[in-house]
Design the sequence.
């Protein structure tokens, strides 16, 4: 176990993330510092980093380095993007960083930036294809991911700062400016030939601008979850945010709920770049990836491979289980038993997986593997804490709906009867994600009780019950346990679910 | 780090708790198994453990041992209480346990039981004095704790099982039975001479019966927190639960929300013992301790001292910080800075500590030391996770009200303006514990922003700002930082609270 720092010297802001690295390729973000240094400000014409911006950058790097020292972080990867890349006085700045702070900076090309964005996204979003977009202060990265590989990649040599400076959008935008800006962006996208070759695909958005767009949308809708990664937005919703943003001057924008006040001045230009791209490519859906260039650098550094992982969900489960030191053998055994019970009993569900919005197998996998994660809060009532922990653990590769269903099922692995009304989420708005009636309620409750049975059958965590064979009659469900030893206590414990089981499945439960 | 198991062979149930032991005397409960074996059942007259009960106990111990093996738990402390202690065929049972399971059992006297109960309570409840009561299946322990020492201790040689058997209370109770039972209990308490010597003191309740009484009360009241340890009840509330319980037959009792169905049959007798003691001693208040004999055994085993800890809150903070591997130096520095700010600015609070229900210094200590505990869920939005984690972490020595206030303050260490309406607790019933207006709101918000300032001043966690000196004018609060280096970035970061500070304190904030 050791710490790894990624320092990202951007044109708009400078960031450092601190990660704790564990065995395998597991890591957790443990700290983050951000300073809006605006290193790229005022360099548009001369292409020189300004003295006061460099001073502030050095001062910020010193603070970052102090945090590294305070946390015994010796492995530090420092990268710089557009502002430094394009500055004619780049060497002067890099030498100061080396001399005064002792850091070696790797200057990334635009294509490098896009490549690490892709690593961040492909390892954390369970999608085969998509258009990745990252709007920086000094450049915009566009990457076409096809079959989880980079098919095309282009870096545009302007970013949110340039747009704002060149079109003078700090305060507000008028119709004429808007027309000019749209033409400019349209032309820029036109020059990327592969953009028009793409099929209708999803936009996979990375970086602060798109995060702010998503947060504004969540606040407007009173979205019940405070989770950004994997948040989905329609093109209409993005347009609504853009209309809101451009109708306000700077002071008014600072009061938009969800918009960072430090980003308010460059936000008209930044969000116009998103809105115009969506129109240009006729994109219907945006998925936000909270993992971008910095996480991409970490994944790339740790994996030492030329390909992102194949299975995002399993990779993430393993990562989290390592981080929380969870008993993987027991969890996997519970998964095997519950999945086997589900497969044998799913004809008793009204749920039709083909009509169900979400991947029920993935949902069961995550719920079963993570059912004990709540232990990390407190052993007592840990099934309830599992709900909170799983929902907020940052597991990758699930839609919010799938994640919420998994969390409810994990929480139901004990005392199923209390589970559904207990979690004090905003109920009215929660209905937008899952419907606690019909197939969703059935998926949670019927599967939750199977998890509870599986857990009882492995009470002593030694895999004593190796498999289960179910037979279904008109009256009854019979579960035969295949075990290598006496299992009376396990079976009696599992049979405590019988009353609940009968209510849910309409059949008596027999385990032997 | 290693595991420690405590196996408790009781007269009613058998339990095993598994604890993970860390450096210092820190431990966390990581698993628990319970089986209602009723080893003491049917032995009242012959004083012999029955064959079928012994068989079930052996089978249960095998399951416990399997879990120890599966979790590499080599250190196992096995104790037995009243049923084994009083059985004439004790040796036969102990030899079987040794031969078939390989465990050495320590048979505790009633006074031993009380002593470990006292260790569990004194290390986890921040009280100087109280009457500790533990109702077991085969005995009742009464311990008078005075100045955190055992002043008197008595073990009554009957428990909930005996009462239920002897007065035939499995199903229901009639008036005649009730009168007889009350007389019997009254006489038994009368024979404990020191009970009438006590001043009016609190009952510190331990064990399953009192836990169930508390849970019934919580459900009746729609209590917003799902926390039992340190839950307070009045004598009226206990009487209400008793009236409810004794008005119902067994089948009806099984439907009482909060009452374990496995305990329903012995619950009239068990709760009568509590109710009668409270009347007998004229006790006005019960405080539940979820830590009893098993935790007492763990504390006693780990501390290797003849005295429980002096400072329950600090001991618990240290325990939790060790368990979660929190940065204690940084946390302590944040505490020092926030406490210093509070001490210098408290005249600007309307809050009068003397009239405030709770210990404001303790509240600030816990909030500051634990402010980053939410990192363990997810770095992102960790201030919000700190609310959940702190509330549910099982920290000892705070009333629920103090704990809730601490959690709100910890959650306010970033973005204070969103904090108060975000935590989706049941708001109506929450008002019973804290009032999010008046002094409580002030305590949360004004202190929360001080914690936010302290956190900014130690952004790089290196203690760069060593102290703060405040001066207050009509218009302004000036905070002078005593630092060993340049702190422009820290001060600028702290000044981002200025707008919020002015709203709360009615004065401009100046930091230099």
Sequence:
């Amino acid at each position: 176990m050791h710490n790894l720092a990624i320092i990202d010297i951007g044109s708009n802001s400078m960031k450092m993330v601190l990660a704790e690295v564990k065995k395998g390729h597991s890591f957790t973000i443990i700290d983050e510092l951000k300073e809006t240094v605006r290193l790229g400000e005022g360099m548009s014409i001369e292409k020189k980093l300004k003295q006061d911006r460099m001073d502030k950058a050095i001062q910020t790097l010193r603070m970052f380095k102090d945090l590294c020292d305070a946390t015994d972080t010796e492995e530090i990867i420092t990268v710089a993007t557009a502002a430094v890349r394009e500055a004619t006085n780049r060497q002067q700045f890099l030498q100061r960083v080396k001399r005064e702070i002792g850091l070696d900076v790797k200057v990334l090309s635009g294509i490098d930036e896009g490549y690490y964005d892709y690593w961040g996204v492909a390892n954390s979003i369970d999608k085969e294809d998509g258009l990745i977009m990252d709007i920086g202060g000094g450049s915009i990265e566009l990457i076409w991911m096809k079959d989880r590989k980079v098919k095309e990649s282009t870096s545009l040599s302007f970013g949110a700062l340039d747009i704002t400076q060149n079109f003078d959008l700090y305060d507000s935008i008028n119709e004429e400016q808007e027309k000019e800006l749209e033409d400019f962006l349209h032309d820029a996208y036109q020059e990327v030939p592969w953009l028009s070759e793409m099929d209708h695909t999803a936009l996979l958005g990375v970086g602060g601008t798109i995060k702010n767009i998503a947060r504004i949308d969540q606040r407007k809708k009173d979205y019940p979850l405070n989770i950004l990664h994997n948040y989905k937005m329609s093109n209409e919703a993005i347009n609504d945010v853009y209309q809101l943003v451009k109708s306000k001057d700077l002071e008014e924008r600072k009061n938009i709920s969800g918009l960072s006040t430090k980003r308010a001045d460059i936000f008209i230009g930044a969000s116009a770049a998103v809105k115009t791209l969506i129109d240009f490519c006729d994109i219907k859906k945006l998925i936000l990836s909270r993992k971008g260039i910095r996480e991409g650098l970490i994944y790339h550094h740790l994996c030492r491979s030329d390909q992102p992982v194949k299975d995002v969900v399993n990779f993430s489960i393993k990562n989290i289980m390592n981080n929380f030191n969870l008993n993987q053998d027991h969890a996997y055994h519970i998964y095997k038993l519950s999945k086997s019970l589900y497969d044998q009993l799913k004809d008793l569900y009204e749920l039709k997986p083909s009509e169900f919005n979400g991947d029920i197998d993935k949902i069961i996998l995550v719920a079963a593997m993570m059912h004990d994660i709540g232990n990390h809060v407190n052993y007592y009532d840990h099934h309830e804490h599992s709900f909170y922990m799983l929902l907020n653990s940052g597991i990758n590769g699930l839609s919010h709906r799938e994640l919420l269903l998994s969390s409810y099922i994990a929480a139901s692995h004990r005392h199923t009867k209390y589970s559904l009304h207990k979690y004090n989420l905003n109920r009215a708005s929660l209905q937008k994600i899952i419907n606690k009636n019909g197939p969703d309620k059935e998926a949670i409750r019927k599967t939750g009780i199977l998890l509870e049975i599986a857990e009882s059958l492995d009470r002593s965590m030694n895999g004593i019950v190796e498999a289960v064979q179910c037979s279904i009659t008109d009256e009854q469900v019979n579960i035969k346990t295949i075990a290598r030893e006496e299992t009376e206590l396990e079976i009696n414990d599992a049979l405590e679910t019988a009353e609940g089981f009968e209510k849910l499945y309409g059949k008596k439960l027999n385990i032997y």
